[in-house]
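User: I'll paste a sequence; please echo it back and then give the predicted structure.

Assistant: Echoing your sequence first, then the prediction.
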Amino acid sequence: MLSSELAELAGVTVRTLRHYHQIGLLPEPPRSAGGYRRYDVGHLVRLLRITRITALGVPLSVVPEVLDDPAAAEKLLDELDGRAAAEIERLTARRADIAALRRSGAPPDLPPELSGWRSATAAGVSADMARHEHDQLILLAHLLGGDGPTGFAALIDKAGQDTVAQMGPLTARFSALGPDTPDEEVTALVEEWVARLGPVAAQMSDSPVPDPRIPALLDELNERSLNPVQHRVLRRLQLRLDQEPWPPGPEQG
């Protein structure tokens, strides 16, 4: 049979046949008087074995060994099974993430554990501020790494729903800050934020920092995205949270 016939029977392309010849995987038959390769059923059987093995994920470089050595084939099957199990676990986790994103309504670029901290523009937060918060959460989720977002969300839950509920109005007030904002409002906002975030800061004070670059990168993002008054407020807030002698939580006392 001609190469086109062999390729059609085996469900591969003629280009694949030529590649297998080049790497020595499939013996090249002698040519006819007219210069055409003439294949027989033996070539077809070997080609079918190759396509079956490669369909399991076996690299072409390993195929010759597997074709001719049953012991090597058994060992390789164990490795392939382990890879398949790991892939199934990864895909199962991905589907769980997708389901969580759908339930929470969070965008796909944000871990669902942190989606509850997004502010809605309908709550008095500007579109620019909501976008900035979104960028903050994306950066934080990455720098926390691994199970960091889940642990951070757990700390927020410990602080209580009242704390979470109050963050929306505070963020709306923060969104409205500008050069004409009275100093009294700026100071009051910082103090209220300190009061609300104090329990979370106390819980996090004894936790190891997953990435020491977090404060600097968040500050750089704040400076890039916020107006000068808002940026100064966040710096004052961080300074207060760092300096405040928070009492130990119930698990620390």
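Residues 70-104 form the longest helix (35 residues). The radius of gyration is 31 Å.
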